[in-house]
Specification:
about 375 residues; Rossmann fold; 8-stranded mixed beta sheet; 12 helices; about 30% helix
């Protein structure tokens, strides 16, 4: 692992700041291959994206929120596989030298990067006095890993534990008071990590996707076993093609344009990832490939069962946040039913899945703040 002070030398110019505006146009999204299917460019004529953007962006959406009460540092650290993980460290400006604070790791939606939703949550938690760390999962954004956009649930979970390693070396962090927030797919990754890493003292998920279940079964178990087997066979055939020099294929992700036949879920993700509301293309990435995992690696989710043994996390507390009409609500409810106490299921009235990525008037900040302030206070936790 690199020495922690090697990475704290400058402030990152985050998207949405004075120097960056709202960036280019087409950006990153959460991966929902089983739920959405593969988008085909041969479908009906596309709508003009920029003409619709104003209708798709809610007034309270603040994905690129910045705060003058928070100091941001670009950081990097190694995971256990010696892969470099890119992150942003958010420090409350009122934190005094020598003072130890609780810290919170924030993971981005599947297929997204830290600039999408994770930075917002980290900023708002830092405003409440927590040190917060947003990170890019391996193979995505600024983190290492080849091929780009690869799926590896085990390594994703490891990245959260590596973030705990890193935070534990920071002079302002009380290493016995570290929690985590997983948004969308990262909710399932942080659950997977917490099951074998007791250093995470309190875990919250927001709009969680069980990336294993949704790839095996689809939403509301709409995918048949034969359809699953067809996907696996297609990926296996593609492995042969790529091993002999064929081009990498990508799957799922957010559509690049809307059509008259676009589903409600496609429109929901498009409104975030393909408009200035949340669009972000990492350096070196193609806008057409953001949010899309590689076809051959995406089947690894079929073997991912994050909620198995979730009860073993107890007595560490779990908070599951979902919208009352979120298409992903089933996953938070499933996890809550399986988990042992202490556990809380918080359902947000009037909220869909993507609403909780960035709609600051819907996100239950007080619930998150109370949860972590209660369970990460010095009297609530002990040494790992």
């Amino acid at each position: 692992m690199n020495h922690p002070t090697d990475h704290l030398s400058h402030t990152e110019d985050l998207p949405g700041g004075p120097a960056s505006g709202r960036r280019d146009f087409l950006k990153t999204a959460g991966t929902h291959a089983a739920a959405l299917g593969v988008w085909s460019a041969a479908t009906s004529a596309a709508f003009a994206a920029d003409a619709q953007a104003g209708d798709l962006v809610p007034a309270d959406a603040e994905n690129f929120y910045r705060s003058d009460r928070v100091f941001v540092q670009k950081v990097g650290f190694k995971n256990q596989y010696r892969m470099e993980i890119a992150g942003n460290l958010f420090l409350p400006r009122g934190l005094h030298r020598g003072q130890k604070a609780a810290a919170i790791i924030v993971g981005h939606p599947m297929g997204a990067v830290k600039e999408q939703s994770a930075n917002l949550y980290a900023t708002r938690m830092a405003e409440q006095g927590f040190i917060a760390l947003s990170l890019d999962l391996s193979f995505w954004g600024g983190s290492a890993g080849q091929p780009r956009n690869a799926v590896s649930p085990d390594i994703y979970a490891e990245d959260f534990s590596a973030a705990v390693d890193f935070l534990g070396t920071q002079p302002g962090v009380d290493r016995h008071r570290i929690g985590a927030i997983g948004i969308c797919g990262s909710g399932s990754f942080v659950i997977s990590a917490a099951k074998i890493d007791p250093r995470m003292k309190a875990i919250a998920t927001v709009s969680m996707y069980d990336m294993g279940a949704v790839n095996r079964n689809g939403l509301r178990k709409a995918q048949t076993l034969d359809q699953r087997k067809a996907t696996i066979a297609e990926a296996a055939e593609q492995r042969d093609a790529e091993f002999t020099g064929g081009e990498t294929r990508y799957t799922g992700g957010t559509v690049l344009a809307l059509t008259p036949n676009s589903t409600a879920i496609e429109r929901e993700f498009y409104a975030f990832y393909r408009t200035p509301r949340g669009e972000y293309t990492p350096p070196g990435q193609s806008p057409a490939r953001t949010t899309k995992p590689t076809l051959t690696s995406n089947v690894k989710f079929m073997n991912f069962y994050p909620f198995a043994d979730i009860e073993a996390i107890s007595p560490r507390p779990l908070l599951f946040i979902t919208g009352d009409h979120a298409h992903s609500r089933e996953f938070s409810e499933d996890a809550y039913q399986r988990a042992a106490e202490p556990k809380t299921l918080h359902i947000v009235p009037g909220a869909g899945h993507v609403d909780l990525y960035d709609r600051v008037n819907l996100i239950p900040w007080d619930t998150l703040n109370t949860f972590f302030r209660t369970h990460l206070q010095p009297s609530a936790v002990g040494p790992a």
